[in-house]
């Protein structure tokens, strides 16, 4: 029986993919084989040795110690694109709400309660305070052209915006998805200098942390509107508040508010709502569950952020799955141990991603505990599973 530990609320649309005869799932599990998580931070969590995989039902994995997991043979999956449409829709709202003073106008309307037949007169008299520009015809810079960035580019372009896209690591798939109308920005400077609105859709990592700071803001147009639906740490909080005070930035829309930003008139904040739609929660949970099932039952790896992809069709043979370092001579060590023990390799895949490699073999012959013990003791071999 496989045990799945749930660190966040995971949609039943995902959980119902687990065969009840093979799997049990709950928030508390003694010896989980796998963990399903959304945004809960796992950095200070001690992982039980039983954990073989973690599935992030979502895109960002900065809440998971991915490198440490790799070093311990724990495969970390995410669900690329599964919540991108939900985020795109909220970004469109963000563009509009950063322009038209919708939120304060709604608050002001409440103050008119009790004015009886004067309401319409007061509305017409007061509405001038809430004027804001149209987005059509304005320039939007999209930083990060992955699943979300591409959808945002195309939707904003369809609404009449002139869209600049920047992504030095643009994938071929993403490029195929981009409308031909999107201007290819070759530097961040080009985005900063040309755009009335800027939205970031990059992962939070060493390279991107704090990328929006006083230096980058200084390059932007006066009155620029900034949107951050990616991660709070991408934006230096003190610098953005100063830029708002100086009216250099006219609005900061964020899904990741900090304490000091709450209540600032230039900040429009949401409580990390980007992926919070039933459709996206279902998509993410379903994809995450299927990734875990395929790994636990078949050893196949798809959409891992810390291990190479590898898959083989199921066969009648015993499957040996080896997570190892991407260094010379590991395969020969494995094949030597197998042949010494009269085990024949029927099918095999080997793939690598940076320092990590994965070798999956269908074998005939008996894979005893002593064989796996010998293999595990080999330098560079991190984890072995026999399925
Ligand atoms: N507010 C919310 O609820 C959600 C937030 N997110 C955040 O949005 C981020 C992006 O999500 P997806 O588009 O699904 O991920 P993705 O992996 O499809 O796209 C990320 C893109 O950023 C690009 N990139 C990486 N470093 C860059 C850099 N230094 N400069 C420019 N581009 C760079 C990559 O090449 C890639 O194309 C996630 O990592 C997550 O932090 C994602 C989903 C929901
Ligand atoms: O997918 C992501 O990166 C998100 O930020 C969504 O987070 P959530 O699953 O809503 O906690």
Automatic annotation (TrEMBL):
SUPFAM superfamilies: ACT-like, Formate/glycerate dehydrogenase catalytic domain-like, NAD(P)-binding Rossmann-fold domains. Catalyzes the reversible oxidation of 3-phospho-D-glycerate to 3-phosphonooxypyruvate, the first step of the phosphorylated L-serine biosynthesis pathway. Also catalyzes the reversible oxidation of 2-hydroxyglutarate to 2-oxoglutarate. Keywords: NAD, Oxidoreductase. GO terms for molecular function: NAD binding; phosphoglycerate dehydrogenase activity. Belongs to the D-isomer specific 2-hydroxyacid dehydrogenase family. It comes from Massiliimalia timonensis. The keyword NAD applies. It comes from the Bacteria. This is D-3-phosphoglycerate dehydrogenase. InterPro entries: ACT-like_dom_sf, ACT_dom, D-isomer_2_OHA_DH_cat_dom, D-isomer_DH_CS, D-isomer_DH_CS1, D-isomer_DH_NAD-bd, NAD(P)-bd_dom_sf. It is an enzyme of class 1 (oxidoreductase). PROSITE patterns: ACT, D_2_HYDROXYACID_DH_1, D_2_HYDROXYACID_DH_3. The keyword Mitochondrion does not apply. PANTHER family: FORMATE DEHYDROGENASE 1, HYDROXYPYRUVATE REDUCTASE.
